[in-house]
Amino acid sequence: MLVERFARAVTRLRVAVVPCRAFSGAADAPRRLPKLVVFDLGGVVLQSPIPAITKFEAEAGLPAGSIFAAAKQKGDGGAFPRLERGEITLEDFLPEFGRELSEAGVVLKKDVSELFAAMEAGFAPPRPEMLLAIQSLRAEGIRTAALTNNWKRNSGATLPASLASTMKLFDVVVESALVGLRKPDPRIYSMVLEKSKVKDASQAVMLDDIGANLKAAAAVGMETIKVDDDYMQALAQLESKVGFKLQEFVPGTISVRSHLNIDTAALSTFMAANSVPGDGAVSRIRQFGYNSQTLLLSCPVLPCAVQGVANAGAPAH
Fold first, then answer.
1. Alpha carbons 296 and 120: distance in angstroms, whole number
2. Could you tell me which residues are beta bridge partners of residue 146?
């Protein structure tokens, strides 16, 4: 069986696989977990576009924030909101947006097309900690969705081809340019809930880097987490809501179920007494599936062992 082969592989890599029944204590009280976690892309899963915007404005001889401040003057009928709703393509948008900026007194020393090229390039690479968190959530049975304001080209393309593998991590993807709605329109939050088959908005958590988008999500009943430059703080908040570590994912495993309530001190003592591979206190514990009582362990002297297993053909969830 795959799990048995995986167990043999990790033992060869000196990551211990041991029975857990003898180390179980009283079960923790059950907790109500979210059914869905919704991620914005730019500034959350992907890099923030703000540095690219700030750099372009400086090179174009403009104060920071002036371009999109001018765009807001046109309101919801302006070129940028229409771009994000997919009413016009990027190619049609650029000259119209340039005219809007000129009318607002924003004189550019560079072509505005360079700004959007820099923003697209600046999204890469995806933040690995976010990718790991998404995989961890799915392994635990929590659905994941991407909800993004974006744009499309004349070709119909919206996201760069380089993001294809990232987008496959999500159960649901909602793109503003394809659905004709953009954040913070409350209808787009209702849409992602419906597509994710979550009826109770309070069972969903939204991560975004823009306060107005989070305010709208909260208004439909979703829990929210603001993602700032230190995005690991946002992941720590998410961990507190879901009740398990988001950076310890190993393909083919889940976090240890609360009813097992493993006594790690007793487990470390058992390993030392029985010459189980590993040296020192147990630093990570994973479980092979919901009904398994076999554990995957790693110790301080084996910091790369789990990653080695993941790259050695372990079964993916």
1. 40
2. 39, 173
CA distance 285 to 300: 12
- Residue 145's CB is within 10 A of a number of other CB atoms, namely 21
Terminal C-alpha separation, the chain: 15
- In terms of C-beta density within 10 A (0-12 exposed, 13-18 middle, 19 or more buried), how is residue 189 classed? buried
**Domain of 87: which CATH number?**
1.10.150.240
Does residue 290 surpass a pLDDT of 90?
no
- Residue 21 sits in the same domain as residue 73: no
Q: What percent of the chain has pLDDT over 70?
A: 72
pTM attached to this predicted model: 0.80
The string of DSSP codes covering 199-249 is --GGGEEEEES-HHHHHHHHHTT-EEEE--SSHHHHHHHHHHHHTS-SS--
Of the three residues 242, 276, 299, the one that is the final residue of a domain is: 242
Dihedrals phi, psi of 87, to nearest 5 degrees: -80, -25
**182 and 42 within one domain:** yes
Q: Which strand (E) or helix (H) includes residue 298?
A: strand 294-298
Give, as one character, the DSSP assignment of residue 292.
-
Hunting for tokens 């496959």 — which residue is that? 168
Contact 78, 71 (CB under 8 A): yes
275 is in which domain, residue-wise? 2-30+248-310
Task: Write out the two tokens for 105.
Answer: 């007194």
Q: How would residue 262 be classed by pLDDT, with cut points 50, 70 and 90?
A: low
Q: Quick: pLDDT tens for 161-196.
A: 899 999 999 999 999 999 999 999 999 999 999 999
* Pairing assessment for the beta strands 143-148 and 36-39 based on DSSP bridges: parallel
| Residue 210 in tokens | 């823009």
Q: Are both 99 and 175 inside the same structural domain?
A: no
